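@channel anyone free to eyeball this complex?
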Amino acid sequence: MNRSSRPLQRGNGPGRGKGLSRGAGSDTVAAYLFIAPAIIGFTVFVGYPLIRSFYLALTKYNGLADPVFVGLGNFRRLFGGDPAFWPALRATGYLVVLYVPLSLILGLALAMFCNQRFRGVRIVRTLAYLPVVLPAVATITLWKFILNPEVGLLNTVLDRLGLPTSLWLQSPSMSMPSVVLMMLWGVGGTMIIFLAALQSVPTELYEAAKVDGAGPWSAFIRITLPTISPIILLQVILQTTAALQTFNQPKILTNGGPGFSTNVLMLSIYNNGFPNLGRIPQLGYASAQVWVLFIVIIAVIALAAKFTSLWTYSDNTPD
Amino acid sequence: MKTKLIGATLACAGLLTACGGSDSGASDGPVTVTVMTWESTQTNAVIKKALAEFKDDNIKVELLDTPSGQYGDKLSSLTQAKKLPDLFWCGNDTEQQYTQQGLLVDWSSKLKDSSDFGADKFVPSAIANWTTADGQMGGLPSLMNTYGVWYNADAFTAAGVTIPKAGWTWDDMYGAAAKLTGKNGAKYGLVADQLTGPDGPFTMSMYSVSAGGAPFTDDVNHPTKAEADAKYTEGVQKLTDAVKSGSVAPPGYDASNAQSLFAAGKVPMMFGGQWLAAGFQVDKPKVKYGFVPFPQVTTPATLYDSVGICTPQYTKNQDSTFKVLQYLNTKVWDAVLPESPVAPPAYTPAQASYFDALTKAEQTTVVDTVKADLAAEKTVGVRFTTQWAQQVGDLTTAEYQPIISGKKPITNLPAYVEKINGLIKSGG
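replying in thread with the prediction:
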């Protein structure tokens, strides 16, 4: 007798099967009703735009006239003729390489500091997280003033201290580090997740290590890091995805300049799809760029997950 | 159930219709003509007051309450939704591009039919540039933008440099910039975003044209070629040298604060438009300043640019809309410009109010320079108005600006021009 025949047999019983069958049916309907908003939302706001954007990527479309099918023409222009595309990819890669490790290291360091017991720790945690809840556009604009090379606060302070100043956002070599510096202002978001992870590490592990004579560094390397490694993996994926989609900071701080030094892919897509007044949108071309970014994100996340899982700690012990 | 569904559909349709700016009202009442500007709240209030004086029992004018920020995004969205108002502020490039797409009403025949509002009453270069290759006019120019060099007279005097005046040369300008650099907290002697930014190659045409050479392109609206002749290359070399010496702000310099830095005495000389005069009139910089025409090599040459008002093709009452358009161009500026003299009207009989306001405010150098610019025989367009103009901007960032910065040799200039010619040929 196989398992699937059991319910049928039960259903043959007097008065039971019929009721159960009706109950199961209404449960199924209820289940579909409950997930319907999510399915409808996904279809309307993700599925359809995804399919539509793929179609538009194969067309020349300016939003004013009907799309004209050009096959892979947009992709040929992307990889062969557009002087802004490869610099945009390079700028995006540079931002990821600078921002992701720094945000993880600083976030973890801040979390370790805030995980200690000392007077005023709650205030420190609040202050560290405060930039995350402040309006992004306001803080970015403030940073733009701080980094102004002529009248900005940072150069004024450096100058008073007799230290070398910089052009910051107006220097092709310093513009991206300046953007990343500003982005690290919001490292409290990374910190708060690390802090939650640190507080879930069993204290008896540290106590046992202390008894065995382990110092703080050994405890960090051999207990803390392995235990929170799943959270580190999560953070790597979250931060990489966020970095690949960076938009606000370069848009407000530099608008992609000087040259193409901070013209990240998201900004390039925006400028092609929604150009300045007087320019015609290139929505088909921007859609092609969107698909390149989409594929890059999927590839990077898959690689990150693949390689990070090799050293990620997982508790496989049976309960 | 069916009745409810139909009712709901009608209600939704009614809401959507109400959102549209170009609805023209009931068929038996006065028609409504909607107007959208990119002006500030204060200027819009003055325009609204002036529009209230428009008397026609069959026409009601409604100025849409739209914040001035992100006008480009707004225009783009309304265009795609086919909800553009009957009259909207537009640039020459928008007018050219939209007309080519068949999106705008062609007013050329209306101008031909009118004696007091004919083409001869407008600044000739504006009419020429607002006409498409096939003779259409998808909008009418409303205000002229003239350009020149703003200078801090106090800084010039303190540095012992002669105050610039019409007829000064490019060498005079770069020489002054070198002497002013580093004085009184000025990092650069000259900030010239129009020369070093994305429109730089077009602005540089002033040098070659003034020297008797060829402009960067034969026509910004309908180009057939781009070129960099010997005179043009000479102009680029001089700019590159000035940037290298540190006296001119390099490409990438954030010019968005240049106006306030100029007012604070930190920028002694900058390229800019006449519209800054209106701001200076309110903010009153502490330094003594002036406005002078662009330098020349042998003959005067300047930039051409103007803005205007366009009407979408689907506007229902074109005759009523044209009456309001005519009122805007002939009467409204008389009310707006005395309070905020931003630009001279393209309709020449309306220019008196602009110049009177500036004269009253003792902005005599601005009056002289604007008049000289409007009368200039040699003008060059500020940028391409074509649909592929965005691609030219990217090429300029990749190829032209590195030449100005000294990162690429000037011998790369022909290769850059060749790529622009490729775009012209392929049409983007």
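from a first look: Residues 1-19 of chain A have pLDDT under 50 and may be disordered.
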